[in-house]
Amino acid sequence: MQKLLRRTAQAKVQAARKIEIQRSKRRSENRKLRNNEEHVRSQEVRANVLAARTARRQDWLLGPLAPRRDVGEKKETYGAISGRQLRGMDKPKEERRKWRIVSGDRVVVVEEGHRERGKIGKVQEVRKEAQECVVEGLNLVDVAIPAYMQMGQSDKRPVATVARPIPLSSVRLVHPLPDPRTGGLRDVVIKELEFKYGRRYIAGLTPRIWIPTPPRNRGVELEDHDIDTLRIDVEKRTWVPTLLHEPMPGSVIDELRNKYSKFRDRHDRDYLEKLEKEDEKAVEKKRWGELSMMTPLQEMHAKRQAERQAKGAPELGPEMLARIGEVMARNKKEVMEKDKTVIQQM
Q1: DSSP labels for 167-211?
Q2: What pLDDT score does 134 carry?
Q3: How many CB atoms lie within 10 A of CB 20?
Q4: Concatenated DSSP letters for 71-132?
Q5: Do the strands 106-109 and 140-144 form a parallel or antiparallel pair, or are they unpaired?
Q6: What pLDDT, on the 0 to 100 scale, is given for residue 45?
Q7: Whole-model pTM?
Q8: Chain segment 210-239, per-residue pLDDT in tens
Q9: What are the residues facing 121 on neighbouring strands?
Q10: pLDDT in tens, 126-156
Q11: What angle do CA 330, 334, 335 make, to 5 degrees?
């Protein structure tokens, strides 16, 4: 039995260690990919900045003789960014924060120096991994569409205008609240939200003010058909669990877990009794092996120990108690005489 438990525990530990190694490798690979992509992106941004500085200096030095840059290969894509710069990098889980902003919310850009600061828009998409959101009509940029992406598309233009994601830390939720002076509704910028009991509330206010979540637009309208199962049949309760019967037959365990799997820790009663008998036989065999290798002195001690165990714990009878009392009285008398002698010497 102990061997089986030890094997199961060891198999679980090894499986957990293997999973942790795989997760570590996956995290390392994701970190490398993220670093490489960030390196390529930073190189593109640096090249664009250097090109812009060069163009500005040429325009300042040459004036009307400065070369035109919106010609040739860049005639239609001049000033557009690449798709790699459109989306932010995914952040590690320990650096992510729950902003409680969802699709459909109205937000305002509050970042200092942002070109869209003070403007309000509706959130189209929230990217929790990158900690950013796409706001409808805000932060629009021109993106260069590669030739291979234009194949099979009806729109053959090499440039598309899309909304560039804005970091969630740069926006704040806007929600209409009643104005105590006028009695009407006015838009209020909410600095921070808290999530309790499955709802969003304005943090730090008592009583709490509930901020409802915008309804989700599923986009697909479901139609009823004659072959659909009725809702009353779905919600009908056909089985009630009780303590008198098992919720499922014991044979289901064999279907969920291989009967001979090393990870299995639930076994049949007959199999457990068989293992316990094998353990008892192993212990008995080990004990007889030790007895067969005893010296005469060890055999005598083992025999005496077996006799004492057979007799059991001794019971104190009247004679034994009287004898113990005599010894205690004699010892007490001797102790008192020693104490008197010590006191006289002092």
Answers
A1: EGGGEEEEEEEE-TTTSSEEEEEE--EEEETTEEEETT-SS--EE
A2: 92
A3: 10
A4: SGGGTTTTTPBPGGGTSPPPPPGGG-------TT-EEEE--TT-TTTT-EEEEEEEETTTTE
A5: unpaired
A6: 83
A7: 0.59
A8: 888 888 766 677 788 888 998 888 888 888
A9: 107
A10: 998 888 999 998 888 888 888 877 777 777 7
A11: 115
- Please give the Cα distance from 262 to 13 (Å, whole number): 12
Q: Which residues of the chain, if any, have pLDDT below 70? A: 1, 217-219, 290-291, 342-343, 345-346
Burial readout 202-232 (b: 16 or more C-beta within 10 A, e: otherwise): beeeeeeeebeeeeeeeeeeeeeeeeeeeee
By the 8 A CB rule, do 104 and 133 touch?
A: no
Angstrom CA distances, 187 to 29, 33, 309, stand at 45, 42, 88
Assess contact for 133 and 245: CB atoms under 8 A. no
pLDDT at 342: 66
Q: Provide Rg for the chain, Cα atoms.
A: 41
What whole-number distance in Å separates Cα of residue 39 and Cα of residue 33? 10
Joined together, the tokens standing for residue 271 give 């199999």
Give first-to-last CA distance, the chain, whole Å.
Answer: 69
CA angle 223, 226, 229 (to 5 degrees): 85
CB-based contacts of 185: which residues, under 8 Å, 6+ apart?
176, 177, 178, 179
- Residue whose entry in the numeric block shows the structure tokens 């999973």: 19
pLDDT of 135: 92
Give the three-class secondary structure for 144.
strand
